[in-house]
Amino acid sequence: MNAALEVRALDVAIERIPILREVSLEVPAGSMVGLIGRNGAGKTTLMRSIMGLMPFSAGRMAAAGEDLQKLPAHALARRGISYMPEDRRLIPALTVEENVLLPAWANGLADAANRLQWIYERMPEVREFRTRRALQLSGGQQKLVALARALMPGRKLLLLDEPFEGVAPVLSRRLTEVIAGLRQEGLSVILSESDDTHSADLVDRVYRIERGVVTAG
């Protein structure tokens, strides 16, 4: 079986300044992988590069065997690959439900209504405040909505950038429960964190990143 994600010899530079150096990692299908590193270590740059949102060079970048380097960024959602950014990036004036449905509208996903119900079954609190505007939510609630939005197209591979950052303990525990449940759905997940406080019991393997260099364990 092909790995859910395979990265080999990934280099990223911004204005000729190296940010990521010879990064290699693998996410086995159906597994959760932790990416641990301090702020500024390169976690977000790595995730954005995988999603095709930054220019990069790589020996190999493939999802389920398909070469991601040949695909435009907008094509990833149709292949079940999705990204939850650290800063959430909800549209404040839209309702929670509208924010969750945005990827479906943008990518013409035909089963959006069924997928929305699937998300609500796993995150009933999001259903409860679905008619509220995003700007009316707490930071932790916004994280839940951002995860729900990522799950709309994210049927196979999810990239979760600091999902617990700035979240109150009670909502951190709830996020942990939801993310743990994704394993039973067969999803593959990369979860980044500044340390392994929340992810230690979730992930199958760990990569550590420091100054743009990734090492296993």
From TrEMBL:
Chain coiled-coil ranges: none
Signal peptide feature range: none
GO MF term set: ATP binding; ATP hydrolysis activity; branched-chain amino acid transmembrane transporter activity
UniProt cross-references to InterPro entries, sorted A to Z: AAA+_ATPase, ABC_transporter-like_ATP-bd, ABC_transporter-like_CS, BCAA_Transport_ATP-bd_LivF, P-loop_NTPase
Ranges for domain ABC transporter: 5-216
UniProt record, GO biological process: L-amino acid transport
UniProt-listed SMART domains: AAA (SM00382)
Keywords assigned by UniProt, alphabetized: Amino-acid transport, ATP-binding, Cell membrane, Membrane, Nucleotide-binding, Transport
Protein name: ATP-binding cassette domain-containing protein
